Amino acid sequence: MYAFDGTQLSMLMNEALARAIKDQGSLTVCVLDVDHFKLINNRLGHQGADRLIDALALRLAQYVGGDSVVVRAGGDEFVLLTHDAADDAALQMMLSVISEPFSLEGERVSITASLGVSRYPDDHAEADGLLRHARQAMYRAKQNGRNTVSRFDPGQDRLVQQRQVKRRRFARAIENGELILHYQPQIDMATAEVIGFEALVRWKHPKEGLKAPDSFLPLTEGTQLETSLGEWVLRQALTQLGCWQQQGLVLPVSVNISPSHLLNPDFVPRLEGLLAANPWITTDRLKLEVVETAAMHDIKAALDTIDRCQAMGIEVAIDDFGTGFSSLTYLRQLPVDMIKIDKSFVRDMLTDPSDLAIVESVIYMARRFDRALLAEGVETLEHADALLGRGCRLAQGYGIARPMAPEAVVEWLQRWRERTDWQGLARQSRFMGEREAPSGACSR
Ligand SMILES: [Mg+2]
């Protein structure tokens, strides 16, 4: 069997597809690639490997027969076209036929192959599209451990492509300055003092309006975009700190850092670079919030980075505590400055006894590990009262303020001082001496 070149193959494909369309039938395209062919080549030498491929070609031709056609498409790749059903059993059968040992001049040689499959009309592509998709599936079969079959899934492929388009659009949003930061206050409920702001990203989409992070953060997961976004947020937050400082407003800002960004080997040097570009911002004004997830698998690297940030004077908090990968070991290993209890527990703590139990346990744990503790999702004064009574002083949530544009912050701070409800809670807390929270649960 001589190898078909691209033109011959595409003529063959076009004919086969035309026939499937005319007969209202199907066409299955199978790309078959010998596994570890380089190793076989090294072992048998060029001529030996050629003989093996010839023997394989012969075996495949005998196996398929009938209405099907198999051609060699160069190297160790074969393309099989069939109008038959080609179900999983038939394809598995083909793999086992391939793996039966060959006898080459007295030597027994065993090989395996990976099969990628596309099928018209499930996949409504042109002939060259069908071939490309079968080849894509074959690469997936290789990734899945070889000696296996992988079918091209048009629905899945469309999703992947749509995601790619959205990702490229989001990358442009970063470059075009379509992102903005909103700021949510964090307070000490025992004094009603504002202790800082969390920077939260929003996308000011020119057509779709202001988009919440839920609608775009998942796009960034596991991609380089996590780092680009994280760096943009850091740069923007530092610029904002500079602006506020000129207005006489000196409060820290917390920035959310994704695990993959934190684990990026360049993280610390690049952060140092950003800080050096803003020499008027002292490092105690920038805080980092890190979510605990399974992505923190490389605990040693995370530890090292957190250590280096703290050595620079930047505090680090564990964010959304209790939702992800939380374990006591994790908490013991990560020398974070603050724990943020996830809002899902805080929100329902007044009505759900098990959420209350979790909140109380985290308060106890924070005290034992001597970490500052902040409750997210504080929606009402009742929440605040219940938390304060249990020794959790720091809070953030809609009951205090929603995230706001940076221009709104100065005015909000003025109005905050006039909020009799929160000021009253603080007064009452000072009055009740026993409410003086233990040092571990205080703001530092
Ligand atoms: Mg956060």
Automatic annotation (TrEMBL):
<feature type="domain" description="EAL">
    <location>
        <begin position="163"/>
        <end position="417"/>
    </location>
</feature>
<dbReference type="InterPro" id="IPR029787">
    <property type="entry name" value="Nucleotide_cyclase"/>
</dbReference>
<dbReference type="InterPro" id="IPR000160">
    <property type="entry name" value="GGDEF_dom"/>
</dbReference>
<dbReference type="InterPro" id="IPR035919">
    <property type="entry name" value="EAL_sf"/>
</dbReference>
<dbReference type="Pfam" id="PF00990">
    <property type="entry name" value="GGDEF"/>
</dbReference>
<dbReference type="InterPro" id="IPR001633">
    <property type="entry name" value="EAL_dom"/>
</dbReference>
<protein>
    <submittedName>
        <fullName>Phytochrome-like protein cph2</fullName>
    </submittedName>
</protein>
<dbReference type="InterPro" id="IPR043128">
    <property type="entry name" value="Rev_trsase/Diguanyl_cyclase"/>
</dbReference>
<dbReference type="InterPro" id="IPR050706">
    <property type="entry name" value="Cyclic-di-GMP_PDE-like"/>
</dbReference>
<feature type="domain" description="GGDEF">
    <location>
        <begin position="25"/>
        <end position="154"/>
    </location>
</feature>
<dbReference type="GO" id="GO:0071111">
    <property type="term" value="F:cyclic-guanylate-specific phosphodiesterase activity"/>
</dbReference>
<dbReference type="Pfam" id="PF00563">
    <property type="entry name" value="EAL"/>
</dbReference>
